[in-house]
Specification:
It is a single chain. By secondary structure, this protein is α+β, with helices and mostly antiparallel strands. The protein has one domain: Mago nashi (Mago nashi protein). Helix content is 30%, strand content 25%. Strand 3 and strand 4 form a beta hairpin. Helix 2 packs antiparallel against helix 3. The termini are far apart. The relative contact order is 0.17.
């Protein structure tokens, strides 16, 4: 009787291992980090362009995710909490939309904003708790800028919030966050 029981246990363990492997996430694909030559045939888009937006938690049900776009039009979304799709999702947008977004970010003053809008930082004397943070990073046209924006900072430029929304819009994150 011990032999069938041992066989059953081995079968259950093998099946469990098989299911665990089937549920594992595949490795995270990265948008192309190749240089401009990788974009040949892509309408001249510069794949060295990289725009990342990461939304952090609040004390409610704010969506928590990150999205990265590159110059070739690749979009990588990682849903973490309070989103319709958790895990990794990918999409593509026309490279011309990425070019337009870079132009909009530049014209909107993105590269001129402070690096941080957080409690205790200069220009953030009025502060409200419980609001999410948004970190963005833009690499384009030989420039790189990262901004930490806590939405509790009341003096942060409204234009920054608008530009964050434009990144979400061009990436099309609504398809992944609507619940």
């Amino acid at each position: 009787m011990t032999q069938p029981r041992a066989w059953s246990r081995m079968l259950v363990m093998a099946a469990s291992a098989s299911f665990a492997g089937a549920c594992a996430r595949p490795p995270s694909p990265e948008p192309s980090a190749a240089g401009p030559s990788a974009a040949a045939g892509q309408g001249g888009a510069d794949s060295a362009v990289r725009i990342t937006l990461e939304r952090g938690p609040c004390f409610g049900t704010c969506p928590v995710y990150s999205v990265t776009l590159d110059g070739s039009g690749a979009v990588l979304f990682e849903g973490r909490r309070f989103v319709a799709d958790t895990g990794i999702s990918t999409a593509r947008v026309p490279p011309a939309r990425i070019d337009s977004l870079v132009a909009e970010l530049t014209a909107g003053g993105y590269f001129d904003f402070a690096d941080r809008y957080r409690a205790g930082e200069p220009g953030c004397e009025q502060y409200a708790t419980d609001l999410p943070s948004v970190n963005t990073e833009v690499r384009a046209d030989g420039r790189s800028k990262r901004i930490e924006h806590d939405h509790g900072c009341m003096e942060a430029p409204q234009a920054l919030t608008t530009l964050e929304g434009r990144i979400d819009s061009v990436a099309g994150v609504a398809r992944w966050i609507k619940r």
